[in-house]
Write a structure and sequence with these properties.
about 40% helix, five-stranded mixed beta sheet, three-stranded antiparallel beta sheet, rod-shaped, alpha+beta, 8 strands, Immunoglobulin-like
């Protein structure tokens, strides 16, 4: 190789190698960004770990996700701390409570999981079942008004079938 060819070939070869390296790095970064865009946010439920049965009417659900993600418990958004942890105290009904936990990444992708917490009554506790109040039972409605003529007809029928002597003897007893 002549010195002139060397002077042209070596810089061209170095430029070609540099171009290949730059393109490879660019392609790698692009592929990593695409994978991140498709990635689901992390969702880890710290408490409850699985199905639990408790007597308390309150329970604190705790979890962990990516620090840049949003979190919701029972559809209500909760604060995600810098370390990715989040929590919410919920009120439980008696029986089985299905708790929905959801995280949303910056890319809009959702991760969802559920936990079941069963609330039982402590021994000896009585629960009042709501029912009609005495005031509601005494209110006259249309059904009560329909019974008044029926009652009058029944009395008239009874009086027609009995003689006055029989009625007096029934009333004396």
């Amino acid at each position: 190789m002549s010195p002139t060819t060397k002077n042209i070939f070596i810089p061209l070869a170095l430029a070609a190698i540099l171009l290949v390296v730059v393109l490879a790095i660019s392609n790698y970064k692009k592929k990593a960004e695409e994978e991140k865009a498709e990635e689901l946010p992390k969702i880890e439920v710290l408490s409850p770990e699985s199905e639990v049965t408790i007597e308390s009417d309150q329970f604190t659900v705790k979890g962990k996700t990516d620090s840049d993600a949003k979190a919701r418990i029972q559809g209500e958004e909760v604060t995600v701390n810098e370390d990715g942890t989040f929590e919410k105290t919920i009120t439980l009904d008696i029986g089985e409570n299905v708790i929905s936990i959801e995280t949303e990444g910056e890319n809009g992708k959702l991760s969802t999981t559920e936990r079941v917490i069963t609330r039982t009554l402590p021994a000896g506790e009585v629960v009042e079942v709501p029912g009609p109040t005495p005031e509601a039972l005494s209110d006259s409605g249309p059904e009560t008004l329909a019974l008044i003529p029926l009652g009058l007809l029944t009395v008239l029928w009874y009086l027609k079938r009995r003689s006055s002597k029989e009625l007096l003897s029934v009333l004396k007893k």
